[in-house]
Amino acid sequence: MELLAEGIAKAVALLASLDQEVLAITLLSLKVSVTATIISLVLGILSGTLLALADFPGKRLMVSIVNTGMGLPPVVVGLFVTIFLWRNGPFGFLEILYTPTAMIIAQAVIATPIVTGITVASIQNLPANLRLQILALGATRLQMVRILIKEARLPLLAGVMAGFGGVISEVGASIMVGGNIKGYTRVLTTATVMETSRGNFDIAIALSIILLLLSFVINYVLTRIQQRERPR
C-alpha cells in the first residue's frame, strides 16, 4: 500500500509540475491512439457496412475472420508490421520503422477489426425491413447506407470506445514497431513497462494513473455523446 501511495503522490506531483517529458509522452500517446482510431473508424465502418449489406458466397467465413481479428494479439500485429516495414521487407523503402507513423499503422491494424466487427453486428441487428422502407421512399443506395449508419450510431459509438480502448492500452506492438525511443516514440504504456523493469515502481504507477485518467476522460466524453443520442 505504501508503494501505491507513493505512486499516486508521484502522479500528482508530475501532473502539478507539468513535467515536460511526461507531457510529451502523454501527448504522443494521445496523438498516436486517436489517429489510429480515426483511421480504423473510416476503414472499419466502410468495410463493416459493405460486409453487412452484401450477399456473396463465403460471407459467413469473412465475418468469422473479422470476428477473429477482433482478438488479434498486439504482439502478433507488431511482428508482422515490423516484417513488412523492415528494411528488406515489402515496404522497407518507406523507412518508417521505429517512428510514430509505424505505431499508428500497427494500432490501426489492431483497432480496425474491432470497429468492423461491431459495425457488421450493428447493421445486421437493424430491422430487416428497414432497408426496403428506405428504398421505397425513393432513397438511393448511398443515401440508404448513410441512414443505416445513422440508425446504428449508438452501437457504433461503442465501437469507437472499444477501438480506442484497445489501442491506448496496448504495449507489445508499440514497442516492436516504435522501439520506445526517448523523446520520439515513447508512449505511456511503453514507458510504464520500462520503468517497471528498472524497478522504478513509483514512476510506473504514476504513468499508469495518468494513462487511466486519459482513457477515462476520452471514454467519458464518448459516453456522454452516446447517452445524449439515445432515444427518450
TrEMBL record:
The chain crosses the membrane at residues 34-54, 61-86, 98-123, 154-181, 201-222. It is found in: Cell membrane. It comes from the Bacteria. CDD domains: TM_PBP2. Residues 26-222 form the ABC transmembrane type-1 domain. It is a multi-pass membrane protein. Its main location: membrane. Keywords: Membrane, Transmembrane, Transmembrane helix, Transport. InterPro entries: ABC_perm_TupB-like, MetI-like, MetI-like_sf. One of its GO terms (biological process) is transmembrane transport. Pfam families: BPD_transp_1. GO terms for cellular component: plasma membrane. PANTHER family: PERMEASE COMPONENT OF TUNGSTATE ABC TRANSPORTER. Belongs to the binding-protein-dependent transport system permease family. This is Binding-protein-dependent transport systems inner membrane component. It comes from Geotalea uraniireducens (strain Rf4) (Geobacter uraniireducens).
